[in-house]
TrEMBL record:
UniProt name for this protein: MBL fold metallo-hydrolase
Cofactor requirement: Zn(2+)
Keyword Zinc tagged: yes
Keyword RNA-binding found: no
Record PANTHER family: HYDROXYACYLGLUTATHIONE HYDROLASE GLOC (PTHR46233)
Signal peptide location: none
Organism: Arthrospiribacter ruber
Pfam families on file: Lactamase_B (PF00753)
Keywords linked to the UniProt accession: Hydrolase, Metal-binding, Zinc
Domain of life of the source: Bacteria
Domain Metallo-beta-lactamase: 13-195
GO molecular function, one term: hydrolase activity
């Protein structure tokens, strides 16, 4: 069984997640921690739960999801993984971080690339990777069947979808990918998005105004 802890960091109100198993092995997804008090909140939970962080992963590499990458990689001495198509997105953050109010942003180099055609392991738990581009060119979604957990990044939100007007975005691509990849998951799958509250596949299939039944998609 896997467990999930949610933090909400930075002015973008970005959701950072720690996924961990009963053996206390953990993965940190999308660390948006920038201020010292945010880093401390993350560290305190890891310390209190006695977690052993195994890796750092970005679902995608927009600024609000990568602000804590360098800190986490340095603090926990773990490999940093992204999809290869996100590398240019990651590299571009340094060029505009100050304009967004993050002058102390530190770059972090990925150690390896994730392939959506393979599975991710946390202990003995198999985590499936779904390729859901459209918001970002190499956006990955992470799904654990037994726990009914889906870490969705900025693909599917409660009553919404990720914006597609940023470089590398495409509206129809995102709609198609959600329909093909995410809506193939069981309806009781819990969607943990990059912003806002948790939702479910069943609810979004029915009510989402962009990809739900009522949208006629």
């Amino acid at each position: 069984m896997l467990h999930l802890k949610t933090f909400t960091f930075n002015p973008f109100m970005e959701n950072t997640y720690i996924l961990y198993n009963n053996s206390k092995e953990a993965i940190i997804f999308d660390p948006g921690c920038y201020e010292n008090h945010e880093k401390k909140e993350l560290d305190d939970f890891i310390s209190q739960e006695k977690l052993l962080v195994r890796m750092l992963i970005n679902t995608h590499c927009h600024i609000d999801h990568v602000l804590g990458n360098a800190y986490v990689k340095r603090k926990y001495k773990v490999p940093f993984l992204i999809h290869k198509k996100e590398l240019p997105v990651l590299k571009s953050v340094f060029t505009y971080a100050s304009n967004y109010g993050f002058p102390a942003y530190e770059e972090a180099e990925p150690d390896d690339f994730l392939d959506e055609n393979t599975d991710l392991l946390l202990g003995t738990a198999i985590i499936k990777m779904l390729f859901v581009p459209g918001h970002a060119p190499g956006h990955l979604v992470f799904y654990h069947e037994n726990s009914k957990i889906c870490i969705a990044g900025d693909t599917l939100f409660q009553g919404s979808i990720g914006r597609t007007d940023l470089p590398g975005g495409d509206h129809q691509t995102l709609l198609n990918a959600i329909k093909k990849e995410m809506f193939s998951l069981p309806e009781d799958t819990k969607i943990y998005p990059g912003h806002g509250p948790m939702t479910t596949i069943g609810y979004e299939k029915e009510y989402n105004p962009f990809v739900g039944k009522r949208a006629g998609f």
